Amino acid sequence: MIILGIETSCDDTAAAVLRGGTEIVSNVISSQEAYHAKYGGIVPEIASRRHQENIIPVITEALDRAGITLDAVDGIAVTRGPGLIGSLLVGINVAKAIAWSRGLPLVGINHLEGHVLAPHLAGPVPVPNVTLVVSGGHTSLYHVTAIGSYALLGCTRDDAAGEAFDKVAKMLGLGYPGGVVIDRLAAQGDTEAIRFPRPMLNEDSHEFSFSGLKTAVRTYIAGCGAEALTGESLHNLAASFQEAVVDILVEKTIRAAHQAGVEAVAVSGGVACNSRLRLRITERSAREGLDVFLPPPVLCTDNAAMIALAGFHRIARGVPFPYDLNATSRLPL
Fold it and tell me: I want to staple 174 with a disulfide (CB 3.0 to 4.6 A). Which of 103, 169, 208, 259 is the partner?
């Protein structure tokens, strides 16, 4: 079965061709970072307009790279939420048009399910497991008991981890998106230079909170002045902040795995590209006797291959959505 996946939940226009539920034949992503950087964050109206310009060329490129035409496609999978409503509607309307005109099954996919399944694209992942989805918009822990069966263990009460990275980067004058820059600066800093708080770390809960940590960084910068934003001080601040976030993510993921009685953990979402998180979760899992599964960075960020995979399983189970599928900005998994 060949599935065409389409993803437009936020600011990346993506299309992918997946064969047999395991083989990524093509995976095309068009980023809008350059358009939003000067605003310090994503502007929904700009995002939706860019999707309108990019969606057909991106789908065409995905088919060309796969060496096929729409005649070879067996089903369409498209993100229906959560996300920016204007962005979602672009992908959904194009997906509906293709599916209706060719009589193909159409499935609407929860963006979060795509992230949960992304590690499976890199190789077999044991089920059950505990999966951490950590990105600019989400920080959630799921107990995955089967493909298509997910129990939310806990999520953030305020900022997502990726949002905290971007906001701290803005405080430091590092531009947008800030997670990659903080990761690079932190590599040359001392993780113990500043002891930032670890909100909710010691609570018997699988929930997260990062707004207090963000405020602590702002207070520290205000107290130190401009000297905190240059040279060694900047590297140490970045390293110390990043370490606080990683401590929370790693500890809560491992704790959830033990409480759920699973032997494997997986991490996905844009923050799963962070080098410190990948190192720490790998080391801690090994010490705790857990297997860990981390997809390559291109499958951590928003992509259509993960949407195609979720679509493959739904179409195989015979659960397509009708052609009046609509977008949903808030959609729990």
Answer: 169
Residue 127 near residue 120, CB atoms below 8 Å: no
Q: What sign results for the dihedral spanned by CA atoms 113, 207, 42, 237? A: negative
The SS3 of residue 289 is coil
Q: Is the CB of residue 205 less than 8 Å from the CB of residue 217?
A: no
The span from the CA of 46 to the CA of 44, in Å, is 5
Distance between CA atoms of residues 180 and 136, nearest Å? 12
Mean pLDDT along residues 118-132: 97
- Kindly report the pTM of this predicted structure: 0.95
* Token representation of residue 99: 């599916």
Q: Are 246 and 253 in contact (CB under 8 A)?
A: no
* CA 67 to chain CA centroid, nearest Å: 28
Query: Which structure tokens are listed for 22?
Result: 């395991």
Sign, CA torsion 169/170/174/180: positive
Instruction: Reduce the DSSP state of residue 34 to 3 states and report it.
Output: helix
pLDDT, position 321: 81
Nearest C-alpha neighbor of 148 from the set 122, 120, 167, 170: 120
Asked whether the predicted pLDDT for residue 228 surpasses 80, the reply is no
Q: Which amino acid is at 18?
A: L
pLDDT of residue 12: 95
Per the prediction, the chain carries an average pLDDT of: 95
Structure-block tokens of residue 262: 């699973």
Which domains are present in the chain? 2-116+300-316 (3.30.420.40), 127-295 (3.30.420.40)
| Of 121, 65, 61, 126, residue with least CA distance to 312 | 121
Q: Outline where the chain has alpha helix (H).
A: 33-36, 44-66, 85-102, 111-117, 161-171, 179-186, 211-224, 231-260, 275-288, 297-300, 304-316
Instruction: Determine the Cα–Cα distance for residues 281 and 130; give it in Å rounded to an integer.
Output: 13
Q: What value does the mean pLDDT take over residues 264-292? A: 98
Angle at Cα 86 formed by Cα 13 and Cα 50, nearest 5°? 40
